[in-house]
Amino acid sequence: MFLAEPQQTPYDFNFQIMGFRVRVSPFFWLMAIVLGWSWASAMAQVYSRDRVSPAALKVMDDPSNPMYQRVAANLKLVDSNPGQGMLLLIWVAAVFVSILVHELGHSLAMRRYGIHSYMILYHFGGLAVPDSAGSFMGMSRRSDPYQQIYISAAGPGLQLALAGAVILLAKVAGYKVAGYALPVEIPHLSELLHLDAGRPIASLPLLALAQFTLLPSIFWAILNLLPVYPLDGGQIARELLTMYSPRDGMKNSLMLSIAVGGGVAVYGLANDQMMLGMMFGMLAFSSFQILQAISGRGGGYGPW
């Protein structure tokens, strides 16, 4: 399912970056809009002029009020609110950059080993495709599992580096990027990284850009590191388990993929996260199908 390269369409967006060909399917933009609609809507509503209460305006009449600075910062965000449409465009741009960085990490790692590749962005994410790719049960197994692990880890690694760069830039500039302004909190992340420290960002578009870059970069990288095939963590788990047990490593990695994928699917459905539940449910089922089909041959390598 996620290993298949999507067919080309007349509406594909093609360009090059750092010597790599990139093709963006129109379905990538559609999925980004679907996923970001509620985020942009929530932020636009939170900082709507209609949500400003008389009590907040009264606070602004008294600079000695302990809530004055916080209310003033919120009103600046309200005044700079560009509306749901513009916030949605910011979300789409942030997701595009985040996923592109993820696939660029894979492609740069492959280039290090002399493997030529190109990138495709579509549906839920993207692919970095070696020009001579094999499948999970492929016909050209590489001899160095550390190479496969490095390439698989490079994507989420560079994506997390992007999130780290945003956080570092905000902290160096003296701003905070979380707390009262984040529509949905990442559990314990604010405390761990001190994202609440600093002065508030006074521009809602700038705040949205920072947060909309952090959210997909961190969440997508973490999800990709789960040992579920064909995600990066699933390929890493396959290599590690095959190194430990060449005979049963592939089978054990698929069994792990089914268990973890099924567990995440149950969690998602139980917590009203339908997209998460459906995606990992399909991944778990796909791993089950591959497990039924394997005949003991070693795995190759494919898109990341």
What's the arrangement of secondary structure elements?
Elements: E1 13-17, E2 20-24, H1 26-46, H2 54-59, H3 68-79, H4 84-112, E3 117-122, E4 125-130, H5 145-172, E5 175-176, H6 189-193, E6 199-200, H7 204-224, H8 232-244, H9 249-270, H10 274-293
Parallel strand pairs: 2-3, 5-6
Antiparallel strand pairs: 1-2, 3-4
Strand order of the largest sheet: 1-2-3-4
Fraction of residues in β-strands: 5-15%
Domain count: the total is: 2
Strand pairing plus helix content: what structural class?
alpha/beta
Average predicted confidence as pLDDT: 80
Distance between the termini: 13 Å
Topology, number of strands = 6
Share of residues in helices: 55-70%
Overall spatial form: globular
Largest sheet: 4 strands, mixed
Helix segment tally: 10
**Helix/strand order, N-terminal first:** EEHHHHEEHEHEHHHH
- Characterize the quaternary organization of these chains: single chain
List low-confidence stretches: 133-141, 180-184, 298-302
- Our Rg estimate from Cα atoms comes to 22 Å
